[in-house]
Amino acid sequence: MYLCVVDSHDFVDSSFGRPGRFGKPNSYCVYLPKPIPRSLALDEQTSAELSNADRALGRLAGSGRLLKNPLVIADLYIRREALSSTRIEGTEATLDDLYEAETGGAVGSDVREVLNYIQALYLGLRVVKTDALSVDLIKHLHVQILAGVRGEDKEPGTIRNRPNWIGSSDPATARFVPPPHTELESGLADWVEFAAADLMMPPLVKCALLHYQFETLHPFLDGNGRLGRLLIILFLVHNEHLPVPLLYVSSYLEHHKEEYYDALQGVRERGDVQTWLRYFLKAVTVQANDAVRRSERLVDLGEVYRNRLSGSRSRAHEVVEDLLASPMITTQQVRQKLGITNQGATNILRQLESLGILRQIAGLPGRSNRWIAPEAMAAVRD
Question: Comparing C-alpha atoms, which of 306, 300, 328 is closest to residue 318?
């Protein structure tokens, strides 16, 4: 009979779930979560973190409303979110790699995972404009996340019908063994109900509990971490806590990864939900403040660009707006965006080069010439 960490003395509080055993004849230990609590008292320290996070998120929402074109900046932040979330799972793609792929460069397996995440997030954002979070949506997003990348053999879009575990190849030594598949239908139904419920609970606390429970259920054989982090943004946008997706919380989780895992596990083992909430709320505060600063920097840079183009009657200003979120561009992209000839696109790019906005970089044989906006690249990369 297996011995495993879920069967140990570490699990001293059953507020959010309890250890159990599953499987015959050699049963193994699993964690059986309770339904998400519909009310929760916050201690003084957590309440202070909540106030900080609410203020930071409010500033970010306000800055989004003031931006000339918030969706342009949102495109950048979605890329940053995708990069950080996939790096938590072991990819090594960079922002430069992503821009190169989007302008005709090589698309390696790591970049493909990032692109999948971006496409899944855009899919989800379209749906949650009108519809609530649902199991069907979760399945569709999961298919997109795993399309053509590692994990594509793990039944994308299908709620698992067999066990999985985290941190080992054997449940006996795993850091965490999620509930058996027999518990997932009821667990996900409770998750969806909680997401839609009109509760006297702060939205960010509700969001933190949703993320904790999704990662605890671990309803798929692979891709649960990426999907769970993506659902954070969808919940906040659907419930109008963000006008546009300007928050990239995964960046904080990436840089404090062990603390992230420890905080989630602390809820399971010790019922220490306050530490998890403080961690999550701190992540929101830090990343919302960073997003505000970055937005201000990009807005200022956009004004600099427009001043350089003052008096110009060309359509170069239409290209400049896009550079704030995607500082690498090709002649073909300009031609397609503006519906002009290849020579017309080249003329615009040369004009922007003469104004110090763009610099041509070496192109690949047989591919469209590429250009980079160094100031914008520094602003989005730093």
Answer: 306
Q: Quick check: 204 pLDDT over 90? A: yes
Q: How many residues would you count in the chain? A: 382
Give me the phi and psi of 202, to 5 degrees please.
Answer: -55, 135
Task: Look at residues 227, 260, 294 and tell me which one is the last residue of a structural domain.
Answer: 294
Band of pLDDT at residue 341, cut at 50, 70 and 90: very high
Average confidence (pLDDT) over 1-8 = 43
Residue range 242-253: average pLDDT?
93
Full-model pTM: 0.92
User: Which amino acid does the sequence have at 171?
Assistant: P
**Residue 339 and residue 328 in contact, taking contact as beta carbons nearer than 8 Å:** no
What's phi and psi for 371, nearest 5 deg?
-135, 150
| 358 in the same domain as 270 | no
Same domain, 320 and 272: no
**Which is higher by pLDDT, 365 or 208?**
208
Count structural domains, the chain: 2
| pLDDT at 1 exceeding the cut of 50 | no
Nearby residues of 17 by Cβ (< 8 Å), 6 or more positions away:
31, 32, 33, 34, 216, 268
For residues 22 and 128, state if they share a domain: yes
> What are φ and ψ of residue 19, in 5° steps?
-75, 150
pLDDT tens track for 144-189: 999 999 999 999 999 999 989 888 778 877 889 999 999 999 999 9
In a domain, residue 300? The reply is: no
Alpha-carbon span 274 to 291, nearest angstrom: 25
Q: Which burial class, exposed, middle or buried, applies to 355 when counting CB atoms under 10 A from its CB (0-12, 13-18, 19+)?
A: middle
Full domain range(s) for residue 14? 5-294
